Amino acid sequence: MMSTITWIILAGAIVTFLTRVGGHLILSRFERIHYRVEAGLNAVPAAVLTTLVAPTAFTNSWQEFTTLLFSGLIATRLSMVPTFCLGAACIILLRYFFPI
Amino acid sequence: MDQPVSAEIVERGMRADFLEGARKGLPLIVAIAPFGLLFGAVAIDNGFTMPEAVLMSAALYAGASQMVGLELFGQKIAPWMIVLSIFAVNFRHVLYSAAVGRRIRHFTFWQKMAAFFVLVDPQYAETEKRGEAGLPVTFAWYMGLALPVYLMWVLEAFVGSMFGNLITNPHAIGLDVILPVYFLGLVMSFRSRQHWLPVVIASGAASVLAYKTVGSPWHVSFGAIAGILVAAILAKPEKPEAK
């Protein structure tokens, strides 16, 4: 018996491979893509990832909101790794000094 | 007489190409190591076993979508929704695939399959850069870049999951907020794209609204659809006169 996690991983691997091979197989057959479709496709990653940030920021306590606001601001100046480390430091310190 | 000599030259050329690709991959390995380790640690925290964490890194090889899978699994969301979300986050690869496909026409069928399997964001960027510079995108160069990064990614999931077992109080070290911080960093990295701000505002507002009304997991779909619609509505044709 395979666990639910294993099934999710295998199905996730298949759909991921389909996106990587599919562009070449399908998209390259079309001369041009409608500009609204292309704009929509371009927006997919930012749109999906935002939905995983916003509820955490706006439906928890002020520590989470502050951490994400702070991380978003430093992301405009620093690259991924330092942003990530400072964000993690922020939530650890806030929770340490202001436990719920 | 000619045969062995040219074979040797070809082999030497392949080795040089492979090493050249591997050199390009070195900074990538350093940059993604924290995330490979983090994935392993958070996977354990969200109920994965070590082999499952390693399998996910080896089979998907797509950092952001792996984290999304963990986050949604931790929230006890229906499996098909998780797979759909993984698909959505990875959908950008369709565009990479179409672009890189033109550069690797000379690969054999199986070489192409292997090449597409490891087509992550930096692989796409480096391949396009090399192709645009007029340098040959050989299979040896492509795999020289891809293989070390891939193997390290899988190894990091293993090492990270060992660390994950040592974490006793995930809340205190903010493990539940670390993923949203990571996702926010990714969102910010897209900020040069057209209509980024309206897309993010629409997705953010719609996801919070859906989270508070219909509840999880629908905030992901509703929020994403809102952002994509805004991008499609705001889009302008590149060349209005083209017909």
From TrEMBL, chain A:
The chain crosses the membrane at residues 6-27, 39-58, 78-98. Keywords: Membrane, Transmembrane, Transmembrane helix. It holds the Pfam family AzlD. This is Putative membrane protein. It comes from Phyllobacterium leguminum. The lineage of its organism: Bacteria, Pseudomonadati, Pseudomonadota, Alphaproteobacteria, Hyphomicrobiales.
UniProtKB/TrEMBL annotation, chain B:
One of its GO terms (cellular component) is plasma membrane. Belongs to the AzlC family. This is Putative branched-subunit amino acid permease. The chain crosses the membrane at residues 25-44, 77-95, 139-159, 171-188, 217-235. One of its GO terms (biological process) is L-valine transmembrane transport. It is found in: Cell membrane. Its main location: membrane. It comes from the Bacteria. InterPro entries: Brnchd-chn_aa_trnsp_permease. It is a multi-pass membrane protein. Pfam families: AzlC. It comes from Phyllobacterium leguminum. Keywords: Cell membrane, Membrane, Transmembrane, Transmembrane helix, Transport. Signal peptide: none annotated.
